[in-house]
Amino acid sequence: MNDIKTKILELRNQIEKHNELYYQKAQPEISDKEYDLLLKELVELEKANPQFDSPTSPSKRLGGEPLKEFASVTYSVPMLSLSNTYDKEEILKYVQGLYVQAHKNIKQFIKDKYLEDIKESQLDKPFEGVETLIRADVNIGYNGFCKIYDDVLQKLFEILDKNGFLYFESELKNLPKEYDFSYFLEPKIDGISLSVRYENGVMVQAGTRGNGIEGDDITANVRTIQSIPLKLTTDNPPKVLEIRGELFMPTEKFNEFNKKQKEKNETIFANPRNAAAGSVKLLDPQKVAKRPLDARFYGIGESEGIEFVSQAQFIDYLKSVGINTPEDALSCQEVADINLVLDKIETKLNSFAFPIDGCVIKVNEYKFYKLFGSTAKNPRWAIAYKYDTEKAETILKGITVQVGRTGALTPVAELETVNVAGSNVSRATLHNEEEIKRKDIRVGDTVIIEKAGEVIPAVVRVVLDRRPAYSVPFTMPTKCPECGSEIVRRDGIIGAFCENIHCPAQVRRCIEHFVSKNAMDIDGMGPALVDSMSVEGGLIKNPADIYYLNRAHVRQHSRMGDVSANNLFKGIEASKHRDLHRLIFALGIPNVGAASAKLLASEFKTLDNLSSASVEELCSLKDIGKTVAQSIVRFFQNSANIEMIARLKEAGVNMHIIENSSGNATLFEGKTFVLTGTLKSMGRRETTEAIEALGGKVSSSVSQNTDYLVAGETTGSKFSKAQELDVKILNEAEFLKLAQIRNKRVELPSASQGMFDF
Fold it and tell me: What would the DSSP string read from start to end of 364-379?
């Protein structure tokens, strides 16, 4: 038996060595046939000897059983997106903005130190005009910033002297010197955002970005990607290392793959990004294993047991443990150097193995990340510069006007279909009436379009010498195209709006948002059903109406069968028990996303508290600015919204943050749970939220770091793995007792939401 185990270990080591030579070093030593024979021998030995199974075996690359659906993964460190620019002048403004933020930090430090004893008007004087000086310096950098501050500090010292303050001049002089930072530039891969988590050097989880806080658990699929190591090549791995990057299909491999798809009369993908997205979301890992997917990593999420001082150091570490990183990443010091690197990468766009659409510029030193901070969506310490996208010429056949959830009217270009950047495009955004006038866009024009950020097609300009004689300037309709109401224009806001809250388009999109997965997650209420009940049937005029639906009327308007109707009403009932942050997000308050909703729920605890908050109270919260605060206050002052919330409350929709019954938020602190099987009393999401509310963490896979496996009915492979590793296994009753949750039946949206083993 020991001989078999030794042989299995030898084969694994051999195969991993050849994987590293092929995928990391591009220096293969054996043929594909020889490699396949080694892998086949390993698979047969493992199959005959399951007691020697290992989650890090190269055989896992072949994929396991098909998934029933994707579980969710929650990130303790949000996956933020980057702000974009296509203009090098914006890069200068970005760098100037960093020094403006540094200036604001220094000014605030001085105020915090002396404001109790010196009038604010006096403390403001040394800093007057500093932001203007920074914005005027086209070569702004560390030396220029320090030079500007020499004068500022001299004026400050005079004020401190006049007020009789004893101070350490050297300490204050060092304040601007703290902002000696450099930049790290990386090619921006046009792929799918990916997070991979390693615990003690072993891959335990992989997920998509999702909304930045919660994504899809695609661990089973990512395990099949040969270039992503199942374990880090180090003898001293950190306890936790979560890395972020891009999943993609290499351009050359994409062309080969599409050719094979065509030969088999199967789906042809428009571009590598679509192919990667479609592949990684397949429910059958064995099919994913046959797709030529790859990845590069460049970002860090949660970590424990390891620290990095800079992006350059982090990238070097990833390379040392077998993780692929973007090629041609470089450090530099000045704005002029940034532009040189941008130009250099642009000349090599077509030579990269992966699709590139720009370059990411980051502050290199990590200590500045906290000092510069982030908005709700974007970090201030990084920006993406996008290269000019591929353009195409086509005919503008018409302009239609769409009505959004907030009543904003958006003109859309209806085009003769044309291929742009690998995708067939027949529609493009025109943004608003002012933009159409500025570009003088008319129906019948020949127009140039591009994929803005390779995502949203946009009309760039008109080919005026081809304009037909019959063309006339476009004018926005004076009435809403959906409901016929008069459109209005708001002071200080570009665009036209329909303010009829009963407008079918607004109602439809409002309901679709309310029932969506990251909001109230009402299973069975898709766009078609929403359309039939809100527009055709008139059964739903705002989200509160969902909770007063009559089963007979629903079946009449939707032609639902008994099973579908039962699932829908179970889903509606289950949504009443969602946590407060989901309700806040579902309400569709302008400028309030999922992350902001969680922050607001955590701070105010109840919807009543939030609804009575002032702009000042809201602005005191981290990442809640004045614009967001004003949106929140306006929303809760609207009479229609007040009435809707009252009806939601009357229907029994939860309006409070869900606290654990014992009030002990640290009951599960430091404990890791894995869920498997079906629980009768709680769905997977509810169970996860309960564990997290008690300070615990939910992982998607069993490992030596797992403290408890919660096992319901119809368990899967996780149960066997837990037994093998001697992990404590709890049945449903034991878990509820441990969590101090009363065994109260909770209706689930559907049977699938109670399934944990994916």
Answer: SBTHHHHHH-B-SS-B
Count the neighbouring beta carbons within 10 Å of the beta carbon of residue 585: 26
Of the candidates 60, 107, 188, 721, the residue annotated as catalytic is 188
Is 657 within 8 Å of 602 (Cβ atoms)?
Answer: yes
The token pair that represents 619 in the structure block: 């602005």
What confidence tier does 739 reach under pLDDT thresholds 50, 70, 90?
A: confident
User: Mean pLDDT throughout 645-671?
Assistant: 81
The kind and range of the H/E element at 585 are: helix 580-586
This prediction has a pTM of 0.55
Could you tell me if 88 and 342 are in contact, meaning their C-beta atoms sit under 8 angstroms apart?
yes
Q: Let me know if 188 is a catalytic residue.
A: yes
At residue 322, the 3 state secondary structure works out as coil
Question: Are the CB atoms for 320 and 238 separated by under 8 Å?
Answer: no
DSSP string for residues in 163-219? TT----HHHHHTTGGGG---EEEEEEE-SEEEEEEEETTEEEEEEE-TTSSEEEB-H
Nearest 5°: CA angle at 429, between 424 and 432?
A: 170
Listed range (347-356, 554-563, 617-626) with the worst mean pLDDT: 554-563
Backbone angles phi, psi at 169, to 5 degrees: -60, -40
Q: Domains plus CATH for the chain?
A: 2-53 (1.10.287.610), 85-181 (no CATH), 389-496 (2.40.50.140), 504-575 (1.10.150.20), 580-650 (1.10.150.20), 672-754 (3.40.50.10190)
Q: pLDDT tens across 450-478, in order?
A: 765 445 688 888 999 999 999 999 999 99
Token pair belonging to 220: 């089973």
Distance CA(371)–CA(381), nearest Å, equals 9
- What is the identity of the amino acid at 757? D
Residue 598 is encoded by which pair of tokens?
Answer: 């969680």
Q: Return the structure tokens found at 558.
A: 């939707």
**Rounded CA gap, 75 and 77, in Å?**
5
- Residues 208-249: pLDDT tens digits? 988 788 888 999 999 999 899 999 999 999 999 999 999 999
Where residue 516 falls (left for φ over 0; alpha for ψ -120 to 50; beta otherwise) is beta
Largest CA distance in the chain: 87
